[in-house]
Specification:
It is built from 7 helices and 4 strands. It is of the alpha+beta class and about 200 residues long. It has one domain. The protein starts with a helix and ends with a helix.
Length: about 200
């Protein structure tokens, strides 16, 4: 009887501690984040893929607890990590806008299954990549010949933002496609056109 009482007390205090940590981090996140609004160039870039009514539902933040480690979404909030994404310092650059395309794609993916499911999937594939290869970045790498059904949520978002970069970047840049090196822009853009349409069709 005494052991059962102690177990209940331990469970009770553990729940209180967890709730306390969540409340503390929520308050800390509120004070550390800085809200920003899309400028004209950013909005035009995103409108190529997403309807305006979807963009109007998103809140945009620079920094905050949720952005620790990497830029990510939390429900309909996009958090940009200024340390891991220094390209965001120049918000008129294609590189910066492609980052927004990537994160906004995650909010679009959440239309199917919800935000929690999307976040769990993204974290799962990053974690598996870290265990297999020592880096979560392998979760983003894809083949242009890969079937749409075999792409994970990070590969889908990366493919869409690579497509945006390929169309508009005039200087040398990095994409995550493992078999695109020997293809010219003229050859690869039509392939991306089809892939991106297929990806968006999954969430209609």
């Amino acid at each position: 009887m005494i052991k059962k009482k102690r177990w209940k007390q331990a469970t009770y205090y553990s729940i209180l501690i967890i709730l306390g940590i969540i409340i503390f981090l929520t308050i800390l996140n509120y004070f550390l984040r800085e809200e920003f609004y899309l400028n004209h160039e950013e909005k035009q870039a995103l409108l190529e893929f997403f309807p305006e009514e979807h963009l109007n539902k998103i809140n945009w933040y620079n920094g905050g607890v949720i952005s620790w480690g990497a830029s990510k979404i939390f429900f309909n909030n996009v958090y940009i990590n200024p340390r891991t994404t220094p390209q965001f310092a120049n918000r008129s650059s294609i590189e910066s806008q492609s980052l927004l395309v990537h994160e906004t794609m995650h909010t679009w993916q959440s239309r199917k299954g919800g935000y929690i499911k999307m976040d769990i999937e993204a974290l799962y594939y990053q974690f598996i990549s870290f265990l297999k290869y020592g880096s979560r970045n392998y979760a983003y790498i894809y083949s242009i010949n890969q079937s749409i059904d075999s792409l994970n949520v990070e590969q889908e978002a990366e493919l869409v933002d690579d497509y945006f970069s390929l169309k508009y970047e005039t200087e040398e840049f990095y994409i995550r496609c493992i078999d695109c090196e020997n293809l010219s822009i003229e050859e690869i853009i039509p392939i991306y056109d089809i892939k991106v349409k297929e990806i968006f069709a999954r969430y209609d």
